[in-house]
Design brief:
Elements lengths: L1 H15 L4 H13 L1 H24 L1 H7 L1 H23 L17 H13 L3 H9 L11 H35 L2 H24 L9
Helix pairs in contact: 1-8, 2-3, 2-6, 2-8, 3-6, 3-7, 3-8, 4-5, 5-9
Length: about 210
């Protein structure tokens, strides 16, 4: 079990360092409203991970496999959400996620809710858990469900810690870009392009949930 915990810890570190919708949202909130707002949003993201982990361990991915329209609907909803974020970056008058702005602060409840929504609108997280966790489970040790929850908890802990560090340091990059408007535009268009590509890939990906036996 110790080897499994170490293995998933290393894999989780590589995963969290790869930019995605969660990181983008956390960075945006941290810069526009401060570190505390980013951390509140991160709590919502962490809850989303926890929900997906629990649901995966209890058989949500089996439902995705047996009732494909459920998976497809959630996948398309996630793609639509990414496209909306991409449009906000490209639209006339759009701003960079790293641009310092005077915005009306959102309530902690809304920050938390949007962090949770950003996480839940990505069904790939459930698929990720399903494909990753079995590789580190030792059936001979018994309590497969408990092993799955323990391994998943390691991933959540590492993801939360690294994202917290990123959210807390986002302001430094914002200060750097504040005096460089050209770089702000480049960053905004680059981020919009990344979100658009992610949305298209998610909407057109034909992979399906797999059920382990």
């Amino acid at each position: 079990m110790t080897a499994g915990l170490l293995g998933i810890a290393l894999v989780s570190l590589g995963m969290v360092l790869t930019p995605g919708p969660n990181m983008i949202y956390l960075v945006s909130r941290s810069i526009t409203q401060g570190r505390r707002a980013g951390l509140v949003a991160l709590c919502g993201v962490a809850l989303g991970f926890t929900i997906y982990l629990t649901a995966t361990c209890l058989g949500l991915t089996a439902i995705f496999a047996l009732v494909p329209p459920v998976y497809t609907a959630l996948k398309l909803a996630g793609a639509g959400y990414l496209l909306w974020m991409a449009w906000n970056a490209f639209r006339p008058g759009g701003t960079s996620a790293f641009e310092v702005r005077d915005l009306e602060p959102e309530s902690p409840r809304k920050l938390f809710s949007l962090g949770l929504l950003t996480c839940l609108l990505n069904p790939k997280i459930a698929i990720l858990y399903l494909s990753l966790l079995p590789q580190f489970i030792d059936p001979a040790a018994g309590h497969v469900l408990l092993q799955s929850l323990a391994l998943g908890s390691v991933q959540i802990a590492i993801g939360t810690l690294v994202n917290a560090l990123i959210a807390m340091s986002a302001g430094t990059l914002a200060v750097f870009l504040a005096s460089r408007p050209v770089w702000l535009r480049v960053q905004r268009y680059f981020m919009g392009s990344v979100l658009g590509v992610m949305a298209i890939h998610l909407a057109t990906d034909r992979s399906k949930a797999l059920v382990t036996t």
